[in-house]
Amino acid sequence: MIRRTSWFVRQTITNLVRNSHLNGGIPGENLPFSIRNRYKLTALFILFYGSGSSAPFFILRYHLLKD
To answer: What is the C-alpha to C-alpha distance for residues 38 and 44, in angstroms, rounded to an integer?
Structure first.
């Protein structure tokens, strides 16, 4: 019973990996954004990291100015 279950799990995982259509050797193919346009990528990184870095300061300013 355990042998049959382990075989079934192994076959299922193998089929999922084969049929997932992921391009394994191409850099950037599994990212949720495109890295082909470097100016767009730079703008996205500035927005992403800039919003995370500035959020604590804006929150502090909000609380200090709150009545």
So the answer is: 10
0.70 exceeded by pTM:
no
pLDDT in tens, the chain (67 residues): 777 788 888 888 877 766 666 656 778 777 888 889 999 999 999 999 999 999 999 999 999 999 7
Which residue range(s) make up the domain with 57? Answer: 36-67
Please report whether residue 43 resides in a domain.
Answer: yes
Distance CA 16, CA 9 (A): 11
Those residues whose C-beta lies under 8 Å from the C-beta of residue 41, and which sit 6 or more positions away, are 33, 34, 35
- For residue 41, being part of any structural domain is answered with yes
* Tally of structural domains, the chain: 1
Whether 6 is covered by a domain: the verdict is no
